[in-house]
Automatic annotation (TrEMBL):
PROSITE patterns assigned: GP_PDE
PANTHER family on file: GLYCEROPHOSPHODIESTER PHOSPHODIESTERASE, CYTOPLASMIC, GLYCEROPHOSPHORYL DIESTER PHOSPHODIESTERASE
GO BP annotations listed: lipid metabolic process
Protein name, as recorded: Glycerophosphoryl diester phosphodiesterase
InterPro entries (alphabetical): GP_PDE_dom (IPR030395), PLC-like_Pdiesterase_TIM-brl (IPR017946)
Species whose genome carries this gene: Thermoflavimicrobium dichotomicum
Superkingdom to which the source organism belongs: Bacteria
Amino acid sequence: NATQPSTQEKYRVETIAHRGASGYAPENTMSAFRKAEEMKADYFELDVQMSKDGHLVVIHDTTVNRTTNGTGNVKDLTLTELRQLDAGSKFNPTFAGEKIPTFDEVLEEFRGKIGILIELKAPELYPGIEEKVAQALKKHNMHKPKNEKIIVQSFNFESMKKFHQLLPEVPVGVLTSDPNHLSDAKIKEFATYANYVNPNLKIVNKQVVENIHAHGMKVQSWTVRSRSAVQPLLDAKVDGIITDYPDYVPRNKSN
Ligand code: G3P
Ligand code: CA
């Protein structure tokens, strides 16, 4: 009378700290990434863009105006100019002196310690950014991820197709807020190159998740900024929750 093993695997959701643990430290800074690791998030998310002189930097907006003490487009400033800016004080003066990180220093410090969800932000503004990101991952020996958790995502689907061709072993994700991108036809097309479909939480439900799973892909949804936003995503059985507050997501138990 041996009991049959359950055929249903236990559901566990992964926690992804959005722009680092950006509820607790300035977004897309080393402090926010360290906080994510300290809070035992499974991943942190970051946004990559390129300086005028071709260096990869970690910042969300295409200008430095909102998050730093400077002004101007990221693409019109050199690395030296970007590194002189204060990316911490606007969040809280206790973070004064925090810099815009280079993509390289983030990989250097966090490789193998925590998953990294890498968003190529507005790649259409930065011709060649896919090659540069691929090169950086190769340099840090992260282009054949095994136990290391690396995902590259973008709202720009052509960029993700290209990235998939450059580094086929690195999982890629498509980001969307558009419900039309969740049609059967679109999901089928995404499945030809992507491993993740990462929708805005406003357009996610159980059926959407089941359909994406049926095509062999996973779902990480964003952006949780309130405790009440968590349960609907757990009910929909998303694979990952992207949140400014990693502690809002229940952990280490079956949800
Ligand atoms: O990771 C998903 C999320 O970061 C996409 O939106 O605007 O925060 O980059 P955004
Ligand atoms: Ca992002």
